[in-house]
Amino acid sequence: MIRTACLISALAVSPVAAQDAAEEEGRSLMEEGARLFFEGIQREMGPALEGLRDRAQEMEPALRQFVEEMGPALRDLMGEIGDLSAFHAPEVLPNGDILLRRKSPQDLQDTPAPEGEIEL
User: Fold this and answer.
1) What pTM value is reported for the model?
2) Where does residue 91 fall: left (phi above 0), alpha (psi -120 to 50 degrees), or beta otherwise?
3) Across-strand partners of 32?
4) Distance separating alpha carbons of residues 66 and 3, to the nearest angstrom
5) Cα 86 to the chain's mean position, in Å?
6) Could you give the C-alpha distances from 54 to 41, 85, 90, in angstroms and in order?
7) Which residue of 42, 113, 115, 119 is most buried, as measured by CB atoms within 10 A?
8) Mean pLDDT of 80-101
9) What's the rounded Cα separation, in Å, for the pair 55 and 60?
10) Residue 7 scores a pLDDT above 60
11) Where are the alpha helices (DSSP H) in the chain?
């Protein structure tokens, strides 16, 4: 009787142990695939990222100077403009002038809220 109970218990546990081993192998294969994928991306993108880093270091002094000189003027301009959604898209005239037309209250009410992707 005890032998029969032990044999039944052992047979019942065997499929569960086999299933756990299969799940672990599946996860490790998925993890290995993801690791190889990201290593490939890193290998391909490495030189481009290095070039980008070098270019950013070259541009840093010029960007700092731009922010120091233009920062206050841009802040004042944005204070005067306020909410950019209150304006229509810029309109370029044939002579090169650029018009920024403020939306009317009716236009502001009719403008639907953006959903999903925004086309630039």
Assistant:
1) 0.32
2) beta
3) none
4) 85
5) 27
6) 20, 36, 35
7) 42
8) 86
9) 9
10) no
11) 2-81, 105-110
Are the beta carbons of 102 and 85 closer than 8 angstroms?
no
> Which pair of structure tokens corresponds to residue 40?
């490939």
- Whether the per-residue pLDDT at 95 is higher than 90: the answer is yes
Asked if residue 75 lies in contact with residue 85, where contact means CB atoms within 8 angstroms, the answer is no
Among 31-35, 55-59, 92-96, 114-118, the range with the most confident prediction by mean pLDDT is 92-96
Please, what's the b/e burial string for 7-46 (b: 16 or more CB within 10 A of its CB; e: otherwise)? eeeeeeeeeeeeeeeeeeeeeeeeeeeeeeeeeeeeeeee
* Euclidean distance between CA atoms 63 and 66, whole angstroms: 5
Tokens of 109: 């009410």
pLDDT band with cut points at 50, 70 and 90 for residue 100: confident
Q: Which residues of 91-119 are buried (b: 16+ CB within 10 A; e: fewer)?
A: eeeeeeeeeeeeeeeeeeeeeeeeeeeee
Any long-range contacts for 44-50 (C-beta under 8 Å, 24+ apart)?
A: none
